[in-house]
Design goal:
This is CapA family protein. The chain is an alpha/beta fold. Helices cover 30% and strands 25% of the residues.
Length: 436
């Protein structure tokens, strides 16, 4: 009987085995890439020959053990089953919350005020001046003052104050500083830029420089601020060219305001606040021309008009404007907020200022913001001499129920009289008075 031949494994068979293993490996890699995080493959390199480990990219250890690839552990039988991917929920708009704007009057530091902040080490600091009203400033969502002075580090004057003033305002809770006054360019474009930089360094946004509007987001509402000036000081006109003035300052013009308001609305502003430096410093009430301008600004689309310029507080007014679609829009006008901090006068009307609070809420039915609350607090610029005979200043609530520290009884009586006179003049039609 013939003996059966002993058959070996042919080269073709070895090739097919190697090819099959490579195909399985490649399929696993493709599946992993397609499935992403939803699946994984754990590869035991010990089951592969050395050539296949090299093809799979698995390194060979010197000790002869195959290192484990860094892959997540397989799920156990007790793990929760994998959930099918679900669609992400449609994002909802951020709910709009009531937003409060707090606006105070103008600030200018003369020599007495400037030197009152100088300490023994030769540094300037003005935190104490604003301490009695800091809680009111910081309690608002957005707080605003007007700076009728530049900021710098040297060569100070009546309209150039130490930049430390910005840091003290920030510490008191001020968010925005309106620079749109007649003194904006007293130091030229360079001086204006230095002022903006000092404010920025103190985390305060400067408004009214370089003709740029300012948008502020708060509580889901967008407040837009634009600032205008009806005249520049002679120093400002001398320090800047016509081209620089045109580039840096918004001069008050109704057509310009209309265009700017339309633009800022397109940029998303729900509330438009127009800041305007107008009138004469000695005005004790808004002139007919000022009222006509305010009416035109209201019809141009402003929600709020805040005036500065005159040294005394002027009337508050709510005006109803009917839009083209018949909706009645309410506009709040403060013709002059007066002085917040100055030292060039001790006349009662010049040292009595106003802090105005306006709260805005979203009117869902009419898809616009409206004023839901308004109040004002008269302020008083207090001055006294310390033990060394140096002047000290504080801004205090004029309606304080008790005499502030370092204030004489006669001055306290004068302040109370000024408070009552101002409340009687402003009344409660536009905003209710409060005393702190």
């Amino acid at each position: 009987m013939a003996r059966a031949k002993k058959r070996g494994i042919s080269a073709g068979t070895v090739f097919m085995l190697v090819f099959s293993l490579c195909t399985l490996l490649a399929a696993g890699v493709v599946y992993l890439r397609i499935s992403g995080d939803a699946a994984y493959i754990r590869l035991d390199s010990a089951l592969l020959s050395e050539p296949l480990r090299e093809m799979a990219g698995v390194p060979v250890s010197d000790a002869g053990e195959s290192p484990q690839p860094s892959l997540p552990a397989p799920a156990s039988a007790t793990d929760a089953p994998m959930q099918s991917p679900t669609a992400s929920p449609t994002p909802t708009a951020t709910p709009r919350q009531p937003v409060t704007l707090l606006a105070a009057g103008q600030i200018a530091l003369g020599s007495q005020l400037r030197e009152s902040g100088l300490d023994a080490a030769g540094a300037y600091r003005y935190d104490d001046i604003f301490s009695p009203v800091a809680s009111t400033l910081s309690g608002a969502d957005v707080s605003l003052v007007t700076l009728r002075t530049g900021l710098g580090e040297e060569n100070f004057g009546n309209y150039l104050a130490p930049s430390a003033l910005a840091r003290s305002l920030s510490a008191a809770g001020v968010d925005l500083a309106n620079l749109g006054t007649d003194r904006l360019l007293d130091g030229g474009v360079a001086g204006m830029s230095a002022t903006v930089a000092a404010l920025t360094g103190a985390q305060i946004t400067g408004v009214g420089a370089l003709r740029e509007p300012t948008l502020v987001e708060a509580g889901g509402l967008c407040l837009g601020f634009v600032s205008y000036v009806d005249s520049l000081s002679s120093a400002g006109q001398a320090a800047a060219s016509e081209a620089e003035i045109a580039a840096a300052v918004r001069m008050l013009d109704v057509q310009t305001v209309q265009s700017d308001i339309a633009q800022i609305r397109e940029q998303g502003a729900d509330v438009v606040v127009v800041l305007v430096y107008w009138g004469s410093r000695s005005d004790t009430a808004p002139s007919d021309a000022t009222r006509q301008t305010a009416d035109a600004l209201a019809r141009s689309g402003a929600n709020v008009i805040l005036g500065v310029g005159p040294t005394s507080v002027h009337a508050l007014e709510r005006k109803s404007v009917v839009s083209a679609d018949g909706y009645v829009r309410e506009v709040f006008i403060a013709y002059s907020l007066g002085n917040f901090l100055i030292d060039d006068s001790r006349e009662t009307r010049d040292i009595t200022g106003l802090m105005l609070s306006l709260t805005f809420e979203w009117d869902e039915a009419n898809q616009c913001a409206r004023i839901s609350d308004a109040w004002y607090m008269p302020t008083w610029i207090m001055r006294w001499r310390d033990e060394a005979g140096a002047y000290r200043f504080r801004v205090v609530p004029a309606g304080a129920s008790s005499r502030p520290e370092n204030m004489t009884e006669s001055i306290y009586q004068n302040m109370q009289g000024a408070y009552e006179s101002l409340v009687n003049r402003l009344g409660e039609d536009a905003a209710r008075p409060v005393a702190q």
